[in-house]
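Reply to dn_fold:

You asked what the input looked like. This is it:
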Amino acid sequence: MKRLSILLPLLVTLSAPVAYATEASKDQVRAQVSTLTELRQQGSSQPERYALDQPEGVEACRSEAAPALAQVQAIQDQVVGYEHLGYRINLTLASQALKECLGCSDATASCDNAQSLLDRVSQQFLSKPEPAAATP
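and this is what came back:
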């Protein structure tokens, strides 16, 4: 009985992340990669569209970038629950890079990094066939 009282809280603590985790479908990941790619294009065009060396240009950029940053955060929040480590890591890193890319600075390296991470997700994970469903 004493062991059970020690092990039960440990089991509940260890099983909580598993209960929260969801399996990412290919369609969902494809949609997220597509959205993040579009947002990356928006971020990489900021230096051309705004005078980022002037406060007015930075303020206009930030007001336009706010909804995009919210989208990136929403996708990042979804990705946290993915069971597949590859999806979770690469999409989280791409989201972080996109936050910098959309940050109204001349962060072209962050935009390039985000694109390479999104390409990695597409190549390594989306090209794999889905496992066959178990038949009863």
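DSSP finds six helices and no strands in the chain.
Hope that clears it up.
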